[in-house]
Amino acid sequence: MTREELAAEVFGAFAADAALPRMSLRGGDALDSYREPPPFDASQDGVSDAYLEQHFWGVAHLDPDSWRHYLPHLIAFALRHVGEGSNAVDALLLSLRPPDREPPRLGSLSTRQSAVVAQFLEDLAFASDSAHQELACQVLEEAWLPGALYRPPPV
Q1: CA dist 12 to 9, 15, 16, 121, 136, Å?
Q2: pLDDT tens digits, residue range 99-140?
Q3: What gap in Å lies between CA 81 and CA 69, rounded to an integer?
Q4: Domain containing 74: what range?
Q5: Which of 73, 91, 93, 130 could cross-link with 59 by S-S, CB 3.0 to 4.6 Å?
Q6: Residue 138 to residue 10: CA distance in whole angstroms
Q7: Within a domain: residue 155?
Q8: Overall pTM > 0.85
């Protein structure tokens, strides 16, 4: 499967989560800086590469629904920039590590969503052009390979 096909598969798996998020990445970024999160604003919260890079700190503060909304965008970004170091990709990978939160984010993924996330992680971990091999391997080992100790079962 090419990276473009994988990105399309990811967006298909997360299609039900495409509605506007409760919290934007910009809002999560504001929380990270101890500011009141602004409401979603379509003129400021349109997903682009620049938006993902500018507001990467926000990933850590997203509720499960908002996280699933942004996950396909972040994965597609990572696939487009696989050979580059990127704060947005690092934030994405860190959000895929255990332990899970309450309410759970990792545990909120469906079986199909978990499968495409694992495919994505394998690409980042084993592609010779990946700048994220080490962290992607760590994330796989901790939570995404069959029998991983810290991975909650899919819903």
Answers
A1: 5, 5, 8, 17, 22
A2: 988 899 999 999 999 999 999 999 999 999 999 999 999 999
A3: 20
A4: 3-144
A5: 91
A6: 21
A7: no
A8: yes
